[in-house]
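so my prof wants the structure for this chain in the tokens format not the other one, which i didnt know existed until like an hour ago. anyway here's the sequence
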Amino acid sequence: QVQLVESGGGLVQPGGSLRLGCAASRSIFSFDVMGWYRQAPGNERVFLASIANDSTTYYIDSVKGRFTISTDNAKDTRYLQMDSLKPEDTAVYYCYAQTHQPRLRHYWGQGTQVSVSS
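here's what i got, hopefully its the right format
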């Protein structure tokens, strides 16, 4: 069974930075796409950003220019660097991975809390 393990998260002041990590029980390059969603209290889980195996990235407008996905090949880990954090970024952040063959499948991390407050 595929497992995604998240790291990072925590409490930061507005304008600060955090980095989330996402590793897996198999090579991250075995997935077609990886990325992050977040879920704020009382809200639905929403897509934030993704990276494909060809390194193509996509970000929603509200995080574009502030969040960046990167990869550490040696550690076989994807990272979400979050800069210029705002209180409205407070949420539980979930790493996900997606495979397309032989059929579409999604895998989820356990979630990690990010709180932005002064």
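also thought this was worth mentioning. The chain has a mean pLDDT of 96.
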